[in-house]
Design brief:
alpha/beta; six-stranded mixed sheet; four-stranded antiparallel sheet; 10 helices; 38% helix; globular; binds adenosine-5'-triphosphate
């Protein structure tokens, strides 16, 4: 019997009060797959990420993690089911060092295991090891982004959602961040990448979905989406 997909969205609708944002979303993420979620500003990408991590509750539909419907479950249960959400460099504790910030994300884990996870993060981002005693907030924007990614990895997730992690980063920092994601992909980590930067996301992803006004308008392999004439229309408007 084959394993259920790591993540499935079936007929998901979501919004904020009267504002209906997502309409009948269906998507599947399998183990080891890197899936990009693209779309213009306001298309609903961030809302989709919050639906998966449990901070926005869908008004209809199913969010199925490893075969279990998680709709209505609190975010910590979704984290416990193996989903980590890495958002725009936030959630760094200013009074804690880089290393303490990382360890906080693996609370309750035996010390030896914590150390192994730390080593993995430090192998990925040498700068975090160099700065491990410094306060989290003394880091540059790009370094804080690496710390946010490191924190997501410290929970040993089965799937990581990266929400606009390249936002506001200098190109050289984006290169570092995307090199790290390429290494994680090579290690077989399953990732859902919500991204404004279409070229970078499509270069990394296996498959992509393009949202337009809260609906998936274009889906396929990264290569087929990249070369689809509709991609431009979805970003720059049809004329
Ligand atoms: P961006 O790239 O600009 O963040 P996005 O594709 O991630 O866009 P969302 O952030 O999901 O889009 O927003 C989709 C719609 O939902 C927008 O119209 C936005 O104004 C609205 N919205 C987002 N968050 C809230 C909220 N907390 N309350 C009310 N409306 C919201």
């Amino acid at each position: 019997k084959s394993e259920p997909p790591l993540l499935e969205l079936k007929g998901v609708y979501a919004g904020y009060g009267q504002a209906k944002v997502l309409h009948d979303l269906n998507l599947t993420v399998r183990k080891g797959e890197v899936v990009a979620i693209l779309g213009a500003n306001g298309a609903g990408k961030t809302t989709l990420a919050h639906v998966v991590s449990g901070s926005v509750r869908p008004t209809a539909g199913h969010v199925i993690v490893g075969g279990r419907d998680m709709v209505g479950r609190p975010p910590h249960e979704i984290t416990a089911a193996g989903i980590a959400h890495c958002m725009e460099g936030r959630r760094i504790f200013p009074s804690l060092s880089v290393e303490e910030n990382l360890i906080m994300a693996a609370r309750g884990v035996p010390v030896r295991e914590q150390q192994q996870r730390l080593d993995r993060v430090y192998t990925l981002f040498g700068v975090l090891k160099d700065r491990r005693q410094s306060p989290g907030t003394s880091m540059s924007g790009g370094q804080q982004q690496m710390l946010a990614i490191g924190r997501a990895l410290m929970s040993a997730p089965r799937l990581v959602i990266f929400d606009e992690i390249s936002l506001g980063l200098a190109p050289i920092m984006m290169d570092h961040v995307y090199e790290a994601l390429a290494r994680l992909k090579a290690e077989g980590l399953t990732m859902l990448i919500v991204e404004q930067d279409v070229d970078r996301a499509l270069a990394l992803a296996h498959t992509a979905h393009v949202l337009d006004k809260g609906r998936i308008d274009l889906s396929g392999t990264a290569e087929s989406v990249r070369t689809d004439a509709r991609l431009k229309h979805l970003y720059f408007g049809t004329t």
